[in-house]
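Course exercise 7: structure representation. Students receive a sequence record and must write out the corresponding structure in token form. The form below is the worked example handed out in class, using Putative peptidoglycan binding protein (452 residues). Read each field label carefully; the graders check that inputs and outputs are placed in the correct fields and that the protein name is recorded exactly as given.

STUDENT ID: A-19
EXERCISE PROTEIN: Putative peptidoglycan binding protein
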Amino acid sequence: MARTVVNSLSGPVGAAPSTSSLAATARVGTVGVVAPGRSDYSAAETVHGLSTVRVDTGFHRSNSTPRLETVLPAAPWWIRFYTRLPQMQDAGHGIDECRWVCRVGTVGLVLHETANGNIGLRLQPDGLAQDPINPALDGTAVPIGQWLRVELSSDGTDTVCEVYPGHATTGPRIATWSGTALSGDMELSAYRYRRGVLLQPGDNDANLDGTPIQDRQEQLLAWNPDALPQYGADGDFGNETTTWVQNFQETHGFALVDGEIGSETGAAMDLAAAEANGDPLPSPTWLSYLAIDDATSPGPAAAPSETISFPTKGASNTSGHKASTRSLSVPLGTASSLVGGRGGSAHGGLAVTGNILGTKNTTAPVAGAVTIGGTATGAKEATDTVVGSPSVTTTEAGYKNATDAATVEVFLAGTVRQRVEPLPRLSARATPTGRVSATAIPGRISGSGTRR
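STUDENT ANSWER:
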């Protein structure tokens, strides 16, 4: 009963997500990527200061639009991810302009912008011509145009989605689909489509509102000027138009080549014509901080540790000096350091080997993966209490002439190397004889050494 996936989805700006880059930010579990060519790590929109995955829509949901994939446990399960969506009303299609952002099995979570500029939610079966599954809504309207935290869950009977403004813990929009249970593998994406599009052979603009068929014929001509050689854009969905729609579907790898212009084919034609004409493409969607749990909601993503600085005085040191005060600075992803008196220091490493140094050329090597915070106690004099950040309180108690032992317990709720979950803590003990031992709880790392 625990987290099965934790990944900040951050990486080198400008690079496309890859197996290796996603593995580098994986705290727990594995996330794969399919068709990454229309995505990259972007600093245009960040969460907790980290880059995010920018996704441009492709021509369809199969192997054209980028998607991140992972395994979902059996119900109950909770999925948490962050997304920033474009102002979808700007496209001019009202609530029918959609982003397919998450799929579980054969059902997608579709987000749209309401007429009032708030987030709207639907579940949509894979067949976009099928009716969506509309939820019962509760909670508070949440405006689009900001980072949203999506928490989707299922207990095996019902499915619930809560959408929060960013890291907020109150004020969500809550959508409940009673009697709808989702299961299967999970993917994140940002496929763009327009709901309710369907033109079929035999249709004619003379019997429709506006000129939808002529508009689609002109998109075919923008994609391929040699299309429709006999009749051109005449507003009639005849055999020639049917053949060229099929040619378009085959060229772009559609699984179903039926000659009809449904929501998916229509969205692909929008994209192809925009690319051909040099028009603005559909706005991207950003994704960040994915987590999956089989017991409870992951909640907001914790901020990463950047730098923590605070003074120390007579730190864990076999011969501390009460008048010696130095500073501690711990950049993310580098070795940590507790500085004591007269060159004595306690060094932790973030997945590296550190040293615990006594006074004046006394060194006892200790291996450990150590973050910063906690307490150092057991001293006769020179006690300071200081507060670092975030959620770090450190008490240092120096001691005199190596007559008392000192214990350092190290723990930080935060991240290391852009990881977001609480890390193990490490206890280190320095005795008057100079022997030092360290144990990481729950036991991943331990080491010991003797002063020399």
